[in-house]
Amino acid sequence: MLTEITPIMQDIPRLLLTLVASCVPLLLPGLAWRAWFPHPQKDPFSWLADVFGLSLAASAVCTLAFFLLSIPLTSPWLAIIYTTLGLLAAVGFALKGFTWQPERYHFLVGALFAALLAWRFFQVRDLALPPWVDPLQHTLIVRQISTQGLLPATLSTDPPIPFYYHFGYHVAAALISWIAQLDASQTVLVLGQVVNAGVSLSLYRLALQIWGDWRRAALVALFSGFITHMPAYYTTWGRYPLLSGLLLLPLAMSTSFEVSRETASRTARWLELLLLTAGLLLTHYFASLMFALFGLVLFISTLSQKKFREALLKLGLPAIIGLLIASPWLVRVLEYSTAPTGLNLPPLAEATEQIGRDPHYLWYLLGPTRNHVFVGLALLAIVFFGWRKPNRLLLIWSGLLVLFSLPWSPQLRPFRPDHWTIVLFIPGTLFVAEAVMSLLEADCPPPPHRIRRGVLAGLLTIFTLWGGWESRSMLKPVTIFATQEDLSALNWINHNLPQEARFFINVAPWQYHVYRGVDGGWWITPLTGRHTLIPPLVYNQGSKAEGEKLYFLATQAMTITTCSSDFWELAESEGWTHIYIKEGVGSLQPAGLENCARMENVYQQGGIFIYQILSPD
Description:
Blueprint: H1 12-36, H2 44-69, H3 75-96, H4 104-122, H5 134-148, E1 154-155, E2 161-162, H6 168-180, H7 184-211, H8 214-227, H9 234-237, H10 240-261, H11 267-283, H12 285-303, H13 308-336, E3 342-344, H14 348-357, H15 361-365, H16 369-385, H17 392-404, E4 411-413, H18 417-421, H19 425-441, H20 449-471, H21 484-496, E5 502-505, E6 507-509, E7 515-517, H22 524-528, E8 531-532, H23 544-557, H24 565-574, E9 578-582, E10 599-605, E11 608-613
């Protein structure tokens, strides 16, 4: 029986129940691990970050294993797995004990993270479906994982597309969909906000590892959660897999620090590094590259203190084994991907042309104004405090991120300068937090400590209020394709039209020889399974011939404004049976179909029009 898809953001009780249900896949695997392998770090939020990250990584690795063994993760399998994990966690904590000595700052930091999670959901309060282009393919992938119980070999688009995308986020979303009985589109939105808040939790863990100071760690969480433009703005793009990768990245960095600094290797930390490395490789390739750069810097610095063999065993071996665990999927990526890879040094003329095409783009990505100010503060913090001993590794790694964000610098393809630009909030928040606390702790001439503290507290309050005010409605209307009216129409399609229905939808150019939809009609394939003029963007990952075919079809479709002979030729060749139009959006509008023969308006509500193309008499 078909179920109605309803916007979860307007159903607070169900949203809260979903968040509770999501604790099973997001926390239970990590809890089972921590029960048997305790961590000496007693900070509850650092501990929670580890549990969250280990759960994501373990879910991705186990899903790959089931895919390679061709064993579907059916409901009985999942029930057995999570029941076993729950028993392991309970027995482990009972035998080994679990102690937590609450301190006053725990309540302050807990309130900060609770407020951040609530804020992330407030920022998407009006959404019926996730915005922009990426969430459609995320929803399609999550639906197929949920349906098949396996990573799909091909995605059910027309034509089918080989699946070789990173999948850590999608596996977690599919598990939550199964447990909470929630539609994939809503799970993608809910988990996206949880992971977005989780990035700040993970950065808190990294800052605590570097400096051992909860105040610096809390400032990093405050900056990344409420002040910097990223990662909150990722929601506008639907870049949830990258958020998942950036959640795992600081945890892998923290564990690398721990492993490198141990006088004797501890098996539990070593295995955690291995698991986080493999999970990161399966969750996001760009975040994995960032970790590889950090690992290289850390490995070289470790050589000055340890012998090569010891450094290799501590840091190199877990990275190599993690790579081997993920390698079956990475080989698949290399087999199907046509994206250019390798080190590329663009000629000066090419770099200049790239900058000239959009001279403000990278500056725009570093904005808005409050973020430009924050970037300036981060640069000052790096200049004055980056040379300190605890910060030097972070300084070198941050320098590499900045280097690759410059259009004229060497490029590690397929990644572009803008990819590096949008992750600079990570080193920025770390260094500004270090600068703030260093100024407070400095034993220097006037002004007195209380005055410095008051000035810095005032500036933090201003920045937080500024960031909150500007980001309260950060979603751009142009990125919101589907509203509640579209969702109602999509539910109607799901209940009233045959699965074989084929839709004409309005389209627009996007980038790199690719077209996108412009309204809720583009959601027809991921939500109902019916064919549309162009499927979600995964079609660009198929064969070049099919991509070219869809490109020329979309180019022709964009010129259609009425039921001309061009329209009928395309309709006959593509087998279109229906047309989806949102009034005021796209080239083809209801006025252009008013006097068209063989057109029957079968749905009209809230500015959404659906026409059936009748067969000729």
